[in-house]
Amino acid sequence: MAEYDDTDYEAKIDYLQKWFEDNKKLPKKVDRLLLKRFYQCMYENVEDAQKLIEINYLIRNSYPHIFLKRDPNDASSRQTFEYADMVPLPGLTKEKYKITFFRLNDPDPKKMNHTEDTKGYIMVTDCRFCSPDLVNDDSLSEGEVQIFDMTGFSLKHAARFSMSSLRIYMKFLHQAFPVRIKCIHMINCPPYLDRLISVVRPFISKEVFKLIYFHTASIDTLYEHVPRELLPDEYGGSAGKLSDLKAQFMQVMSDKRDYLMDPNYWKVESS
Fold first, then answer.
1. What does pTM read for this prediction?
2. Does position 15 have pLDDT exceeding 50, yes or no?
3. Phi/psi class of residue 221: alpha, beta or left (left: φ > 0; alpha: ψ in -120 to 50)?
4. Residue 271 falls within a domain, yes or no?
């Protein structure tokens, strides 16, 4: 395999891409921006990036019902995206972190299908990771901030959790995610928060749990961690209405449908 110039960023990405395409443990193709995220996530260490990439696609191909058999426009995906908002917000924090916002758009627990919802979230991230973090800017985010609005979330929702899907999701998030999770903010937490935590705590690693902030009194404490102007209008920010931001991203996902469904980008043909 060709060597690379240790001082040349693009040459190292070229090297990784050639290694990827020649590796029988990996799919035939990879989006170059996604490849850069793997590299940056591992602090620009080529060998560590290679390990992360192999783990990522090993997990994907071990659970094809979540990672491979998917269509952002099919009925089950439409139901997920209608009742749940999963929206990457525009802009970056001063630390160059990207924010993704989650909330229930419809609190009816019967609308929830945890496995399909997990699949939907993976499609959201796969779509985002092959898209620029800023318009007309090639720089990548340095990490990920997740905000969950718990309004409308009940114990009936928790009862619909799939333990197997939750385990897969946490494994993927902890071991294979191509960006560094910096913090997770839970806002508008219900009074029965402790009972909810008891359900999911066994599946969350100590490292990930340390990143979670629970905002129980008011949303004001969130502003101490996240720039207010990057939040949706409904949450005291000026990034725009969440419904408009969601509609824009849903169009991006629809445009990326062929990429998300193309097995050449995701499926490993040989073990």
1. 0.92
2. yes
3. alpha
4. no
